[in-house]
Every structure is written in structure tokens, then in C-alpha cells.
User: Which sequence fits this backbone?
């Protein structure tokens, strides 16, 4: 039996992913037991008992010995390194040391994994997470280091196992991280109100970033949009983006915000519909339409109109449409208007529609009789 090849894997991380660190050891042990390779874990645990002026120097020697350098991040960038003016954290020092060695010798292979963070943190990251996100952006732009994102420990274990086996078998992709261009729908911009105009401008900036393979920039923009926008269409596109990049937790969070927003809008739409129904606009509409209907058909047409405009299906369609196209504030403003100074407007609305709707139908019939011929 041929001798097992030993692959030394260094694990670098800040202190907020203990579960993944434990899983790392389990994955390496399992791979060693069922493959033709022996995977040997290396990390700071190997120097805890060491003494000396600078323990990080001992850790750095392990970085120099490893075949694979694995860095895993979540929210924290890492412990500040007061004994060096060059790096902002020990994890950064370890990565840069491995990266320089790779540039000079082609080893070690470097994997960087990033655990998903919630949308509110992504939109307003703070000092530590900002450094992590900036590091991700640099990796994406360089396309020299293989990096992946994950949501759960199970996903991390699966990705780690796959990447280690691909490395051992010489099957890693080149370039290490392929450029991904994500194209998303463009929303129409027909003289929008100020809030919508702001949302559309930010969304288009995010879409350009996604189409240009700047996914980290796009993620940050869509995260901010998902926290501030009250536009259902914008939220749908943000959710589609997060689904395409594999951040299912973020996509679900956007969906939940949309559901809450639509629910609030539907409540406001119900209030508005109730106010409209309290006025006699339907009677005026029926009366107006009857003027262009033969007398012998009055009863049948009126019955049909009242069935149509008072039926639950029509009311539901009206509420759905209002919830989709109007904000809660707009619907409440309409409700206040028709309850107050707009009472006289509501009283004239049905009469106006009763006149104008039949006239529109007549104009269309005269313009193109074929369309109305049965």
C-alpha cells in the first residue's frame, strides 16, 4: 500500500467562530480516515504551551510549514496586534504571510471562508465587520484567492471537505475565484417621487456592481436598500440578488420585510376601500352608465354592475393593486382626504365616472368598430 501523503492545513480565524474551528478538526479527521491522504491540522492551539517574547512568531512558523492556509471569518476582523505597526490583527498578519509565500513559491493554497451575517449588520457593519467586508472585496477583485461564503456549520463542513479533496487531487479551478456577473431586472423610472427616485438610484448602482462582478459592493448596497426601502419591487430585486449569490438567510430576511410591508399596506388599503364604499359613488356610476344603455337592458346591466363592483373578487383586486402601488403613507393620506375635505370629491366621483366611462367606450367604438363587433 502506498504511503499516505500528509497535507498540513493551517486554521486562522478571529475568536467568533469556535463551532467552525471544532468542525474543522472533525472534517480533517474524517477525511484522513476515508481517503488516501492524511490531513494534519495546524493552528494557535499548537503553541499555547510555548514560551517566548512573541508567541505570534511561533504561529508564523506553522504558516510557513502548511500546505493549505484556511482563514474563516464571521463578524470580527481579529485581535489587535500591538506588537506590530504593519497589521491591524494577528489573523491579517497570518494571511499576508501566507499570501507572500504563495506569490514567491506557489504554496500554500489559500482558502478564505466567510460566514453570512444578518442584513441589518451588513447594512450598518461597524468597525470590525467593515474590515471583514473590505477584505472580502479585495479578495474578489484580486481573483487570486479562493473564497466562499456559508450559512451553517453543515455548509462549512461540506465546502471545506470539497475544497480540501479538490486540492489533494489537483482539481482546483484557475483562476481561483471566477468572476460572476449577475443581471437583474431594471425598474421603470417615470417621474418618481423623491423616495422612489432615491431607491432606484441606489438599486441601479447595486445592479451595475452586480453586473460588473463587484458582488461585495452590490451586497452592501442591497443590504442597505432592504433596510430602508418601502418599495415592494425594489425588495423583490434585492431578494433575487441574494438568492443568486447563495445568501439564503438574507433572501429570506428581505422576503419577510416585504411580507410585513405588504401586510401593512393591505391594512391601509382596506381602510381606504372602506371609506370609498361608505359613499354612494356606485349609485352615481350606475346612473351615468344607464344613460347609454337601452331601457330594456337597464335591469340586467345594473345587476351586473352591482355584482361586479360589490363582489369580493373586485374588492380583493382593488386592495392588492393599491397595496402594490401605493405606500402606507399615501393610502392613509387618501383615507384622511376622503373622510375630510374630500367628502365632496367622493360624492362627485361616481357621477364623473358614470359620464366619462360610457363616453370613452363610444369613442373607442367610433375609432375602431371592429374591436367591439361580436
Assistant:
Amino acid at each position: 500500500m502506498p504511503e499516505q501523503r500528509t497535507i498540513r492545513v493551517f486554521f486562522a480565524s478571529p475568536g467568533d467562530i469556535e463551532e467552525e474551528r471544532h468542525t474543522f478538526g472533525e472534517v480533517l479527521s474524517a477525511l484522513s480516515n476515508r481517503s488516501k491522504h492524511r490531513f494534519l491540522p495546524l493552528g494557535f492551539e499548537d503553541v499555547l504551551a510555548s514560551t517566548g517574547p512573541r508567541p505570534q512568531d511561533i504561529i508564523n512558523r506553522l504558516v510557513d510549514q502548511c500546505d493549505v492556509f484556511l482563514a474563516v471569518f464571521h463578524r470580527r476582523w481579529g485581535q489587535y496586534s500591538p506588537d506590530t505597526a504593519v497589521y491591524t490583527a494577528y489573523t491579517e498578519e497570518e494571511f499576508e504571510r501566507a499570501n507572500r509565500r504563495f506569490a514567491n513559491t506557489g504554496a500554500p493554497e489559500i482558502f478564505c471562508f466567510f460566514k453570512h451575517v444578518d442584513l441589518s449588520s451588513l447594512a450598518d457593519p461597524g468597525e470590525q465587520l467593515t474590515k471583514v467586508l473590505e477584505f472580502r472585496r479585495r479578495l474578489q477583485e484580486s481573483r487570486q484567492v479562493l473564497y466562499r461564503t456559508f450559512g451553517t456549520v453543515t455548509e462549512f463542513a461540506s465546502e471545506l471537505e470539497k475544497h480540501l479533496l479538490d486540492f489533494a487531487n489537483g482539481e482546483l479551478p484557475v483562476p481561483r475565484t471566477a468572476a460572476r456577473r449577475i443581471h437583474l431586472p431594471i425598474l421603470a423610472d417615470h417621474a418618481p417621487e423623491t423616495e422612489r427616485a432615491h431607491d432606484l438610484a441606489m438599486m441601479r448602482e447595486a445592479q451595475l456592481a452586480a453586473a460588473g462582478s463587484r458582488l461585495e459592493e452590490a451586497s452592501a448596497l442591497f443590504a442597505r436598500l432592504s433596510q430602508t426601502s418601502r418599495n415592494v419591487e425594489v425588495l423583490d430585486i434585492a431578494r433575487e440578488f441574494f438568492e443568486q449569490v447563495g445568501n439564503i438567510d438574507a433572501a429570506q430576511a428581505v422576503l419577510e420585510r416585504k411580507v410585513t410591508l405588504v401586510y401593512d399596506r393591505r391594512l391601509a388599503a382596506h381602510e381606504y376601500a372602506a371609506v370609498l364604499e361608505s359613499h354612494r359613488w356606485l349609485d352615481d356610476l350606475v346612473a351615468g352608465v344607464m344613460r347609454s344603455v337601452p331601457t330594456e337592458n337597464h335591469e340586467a346591466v345594473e345587476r351586473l354592475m352591482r355584482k361586479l363592483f360589490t363582489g369580493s373578487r373586485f374588492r380583493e383586486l382593488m386592495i392588492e393593486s393599491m397595496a402594490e402601488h401605493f405606500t402606507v403613507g399615501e393610502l392613509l393620506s387618501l383615507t384622511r382626504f376622503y373622510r375630510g375635505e374630500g367628502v365632496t370629491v367622493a360624492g362627485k366621483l361616481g357621477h364623473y365616472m358614470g359620464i366619462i366611462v360610457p363616453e370613452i367606450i363610444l369613442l373607442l367604438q367610433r375609432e375602431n368598430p371592429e374591436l367591439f363587433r361580436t
